[in-house]
């Protein structure tokens, strides 16, 4: 039993060290309003956006390409960070020169459907 606990602690420490070895970008969550999104269906015209900024973004005056990511209908922008760890994936890809430093933008996709007087938000 003691060996199992020591092995689990060693694995946990290795995982944390492996994740921490890459420079970290910054994740910013903001809300944007657009008059064009106002509609009679009742959808909120203010949308949440999640933006990933590469590790060197704040120190640089360089322009970065932007990847606009539209997640699936059953997922969300915050789950891309919390569950998929997309920011860590981008950190690793940038640090190992698999991709150029870039900004990543993902918005929450919502849809309201009014059926027989009942408002359903998906």
Topology (SSEs and partners):
Elements: H1 2-20, E1 26-33, E2 46-53, E3 66-69, H2 77-82, H3 86-95, E4 103-107, E5 112-115, E6 118-121
Parallel strand pairs: 3-4
Antiparallel strand pairs: 1-2, 2-4, 5-6
Please give a structural write-up.
InterPro entries: AB_hydrolase_fold (IPR029058), Esterase-like (IPR000801). Pfam families: Esterase. This is Alpha/beta hydrolase-fold protein. Keywords: Hydrolase, Signal. By secondary structure, the protein is of the alpha+beta class. The chain has helices at 2-20, 77-82, 86-95; strands at residues 26-33, 46-53, 66-69, 103-107, 112-115, 118-121. The longest helix is centred in the N-terminal third of the chain and has 19 residues, at 2-20. It has 3 helices and 6 strands. It has a single domain (2-121), classed as 3-Layer(aba) Sandwich (Rossmann fold), CATH 3.40.50.1820. Strand 5 and strand 6 form a beta hairpin. The mean pLDDT is 78. The termini are far apart. The chain has a 4-stranded mixed sheet with strand order 1-2-4-3, with no helix packed on it. Strands 5-6 form a two-stranded antiparallel ribbon.
